[in-house]
Amino acid sequence: MSRTVLLLHGLGGSAEDWKEAAAALPKGLAPVALDFPGFGKTPRPHDSYDPASLARWVLGEMDDRDVEKAVVAGHSLGGRVAGELAALAPGRVLALALVSPLGAVSYGFTDTLKWKAMSRAALVSAASDTSLRNALGYGFAVDGPGKKGFVARGMKARTGPHASAALRAVERSVDGLLSAPPLSKRLAGTKGPLLLATGAEDPLAPPKDVEAIRAVRPDAAWAKLAGVGHYAPLEAPKDVARLLAELAKKA
């Protein structure tokens, strides 16, 4: 019997970001990649974009798919939501993988202003194509097909028929992330197999921030991927698949 691996994408991304990693999972693991509301193929925006609201939305998607329990893996924003899901409904999470999760620690004043500025819908919609491509490519350490595909999808999302929904989703997701308690606080007292994975060159969720989670979950497995930036599922999909397969064995 196969075991479901629920895959949650990052800020500004889509389920497509998990495609290569999902394809590399071994038999016996059934990947289900979701598009958050307003992203990818789910263009209709959600009412709320704080991590708790998105986690409850994920639970609804699990119910709709008759997925009682799953190994849950989240990247970037998806990592913050996956952690919230484990805190809200631990019985639904067989094992948890956080790949470069945003919001591991509280954001200071300067970082808050930076995240606000880079996510305002009005500013993004007015940016030139060159500026937008550069912004979408920021955080990648590997200049390969994963980056190329991510940038192309991001450009299409921000200029296509559902552009306004996509831009609102990004802006409201950042606002929800910044207003939420740090993930390290939410995971205190949780149990179950936990994997923390990050790119050694990640400027958006630096390893030192992700390591803060280890202070409350010293039992967590830890993987720092050399030469990889923020987008490990796109930069090193086979490595991520291997780590998820190892985690699933502990579930």
Secondary structure elements and pairings:
Blueprint: E1 3-8, H1 19-23, E2 29-34, H2 51-64, E3 70-75, H3 77-88, E4 93-99, H4 109-119, H5 121-126, H6 129-137, H7 145-159, H8 163-179, H9 183-186, E5 194-199, H10 207-210, H11 212-216, E6 221-225, H12 232-235, H13 237-248
Parallel strand pairs: 1-2, 1-3, 3-4, 4-5, 5-6
Tell me what the structure shows.
This protein has a six-stranded parallel beta sheet with strand order 2-1-3-4-5-6. Helix content is 47%, strand content 14%. By secondary structure, it is of the alpha/beta class. The model has no long low-confidence stretch (mean pLDDT 93). The protein has helices at 19-23, 51-64, 77-88, 109-119, 121-126, 129-137, 145-159, 163-179, 183-186, 207-210, 212-216, 232-235, 237-248; strands at 3-8, 29-34, 70-75, 93-99, 194-199, 221-225.
